Amino acid sequence: MDKTHIKQKVILSAVAGMILIPGRAHDIPAAENTGEQPFVQASGIESVLEKCYETEVKDNINLYLVPTEEGEYLNMAFSDTEDFTYIRSAPEENSSWVGKLYQDSAAQVLEYLDGWTKIKSGSAEGYVPSGSLITGGEASRRAKEYEDHTVTVTAYVLNVRDGQGTGADILTQVRLGETYEVSGEPVDGWYPVKVGEIDGWVSGDYVTAEASYSYGETKEEEEARLEAEKRRTEEVRAAEAGAAGSAVRGSGITGQAVIDYACQFIGNPYVWGGTSLTDGADCSGFVQSVYAHFGVSLPRTTYEMVNSGYAVSYEAALPGDLILYDGHVGLYMGDGTIVNAMNEADGIGICSATYTNIIAVRRVL
């Protein structure tokens, strides 16, 4: 299944305050409660091992202590199941389920029982069949297989292209704070990503790359996630319907297509009197040149653009509409934002549509 469940930053963690051996638990000083699952430090491990030998389990110690390169020992496990395994409230098959441990997820071992293992994976804590887990030395050897590599967008809007470099065609755009799975090895500072059904590339200059594990989720978290996904689907359908409504009759041009094109030039310079989308433009020159790309002729100045097309209210504004101010103009993106040639310091960028008083909203499509 697609890994749509909870992802967390890589923190390989152990049980606070104890190392677990089947049938026994040996206390060691607990870590301070920092909100993260704590490490069991290497210091003091010798005394734990001595006790283990005394209990005649020395032949099995490597099954439950997983060493990392840093020298700590961790009770780490990974799921070994198709799709998912129910995390149950008690170590019995007919007990209620409290969460799900998904395929390729990581977990922290809390207790070994007869045929069952108590785990914590993300916020979900409970019991899973022991046969659904990879533990011990095998977990250590295979840990890299379970790593997910992701990038998080650090730019307000980032183009996803069909190849490496700004000369490649734009396939779609992603937004600030969104995280996507890296689908292969980076090339020349560009990362291959999958955005929905689209496979493309993003510039490493505008993303933060991380390695992480996938974790399970509680029953409540799953319900909230599914509800959020349902809302997002409805919003996308509504946006598509709105964009379709802004099309030029018979031309196939949509306001969203205008915005997608305009956003390619974010970061380029502001030049007073300029009309070049790459070398520099002022606010009206930017809007005029963007629409010229689609064969739509607009006046050169904001004072003339205020009479272009026809008036609509700000509440009814759609992507591609002109938002006019006293001596300034931008293109409405939706969600209360405009893309515009701002000033010499900021160049072409995005800001709030209501940063100052709006004089007019004009629709030219």
UniProtKB/TrEMBL annotation:
Residues 148-211 form the SH3b domain. Coiled coil: none annotated. GO terms for molecular function: cysteine-type peptidase activity. The keyword Hydrolase applies. InterPro entries: NLP_P60_dom, Papain-like_cys_pep_sf, PG_Endopeptidase_C40, SH3-like_bac-type. SUPFAM superfamilies: Cysteine proteinases. Pfam families: NLPC_P60, SH3_3. The keyword Flavoprotein does not apply. GO terms for biological process: proteolysis. This is C40 family peptidase. It comes from Candidatus Mediterraneibacter tabaqchaliae.
